[in-house]
Amino acid sequence: MSTTKLGIFGIAAAAVAILASSSLFTVRQTEQAIVLQLGNPVRVIKEPGLQFKIPFIQNVLYYDNRVLDLDPPTQELPLVDQKRIIVDTYARYRIVDPLEFYKTVRLEENLRNRLGGILNAAVRKEMGESELTDLLTEKRGEVMKRISRTVAQRAPEFGIQIIDVRIGRTDLPQQTSQSVFNRMRSDRVAQAAQLRAEGEELKVKIQAEADRTRTGLLADARREAEVLRGEGDGARNKILGDAYGKDAEFFRFYRSMDAYRQALGDGRTTMVLSPDSEFFRYFGKAPQK
Fold this sequence. Notes:
Blueprint: H1 2-23, E1 24-27, E2 31-37, E3 40-45, E4 49-52, E5 58-64, E6 68-70, E7 75-78, E8 84-95, H2 98-104, H3 108-128, H4 139-154, E9 160-171, H5 174-246, H6 248-264
Antiparallel strand pairs: 1-4, 2-3, 2-5, 6-8, 7-8, 8-9
Helix pairs in contact: 3-4, 5-6
């Protein structure tokens, strides 16, 4: 009899344990949950802790309450100038309304597909109205703000909050990249040619101005030299005239010495003259006072 009671007690304890395990569930700090009764949501739980549900009738669906990633595939898009660009975008979001999330998409995989399509459409629209230079300058931030605003407006439909939207990488297709490179090279070559032409023109102007200045300086210098030379010759002639008036014989002697210096001063001049030539009249005798 005691063995039968013990068996019944054991069965009852097992049933209670199974019932308790089916009735109790835990919501972790990184989770939020929806209690479903026969497939219909009846309760939303956002606080962590031990919770209770009706066993066998109700079940629990968990959602992450942390920031989640959305990284749709890259896409090749046309720009406003008909160039094509490969764009890789990503978004960060958080589930803030699990009930609405369950009603619209139920699973995160479904949300990725739908929100990814919305994000790609917003990116496609903005890229179609932008130029390549807009993505390489400070205008890139304005483009991202417009994309984020468009995606954020659709977020409440799914019970989520958009934290951030970014363009992770933008690449040009190989053909477009080569075309852009060739155009940039042509632009740089043309710019270099223009700079060389402007430099050559500036060089000619500076050189012409320098030549004019040089010619003017030389003319002024020659004029001043002629004036000084004339003044010097006048002073010299006056000195020589005064010397001639004082002692004519000494003056002739001095002029002969000067002629000797100019004719024979370099030591390489050979002259063949008669010894009694007038040119050598002062050789061998001193002038008479």
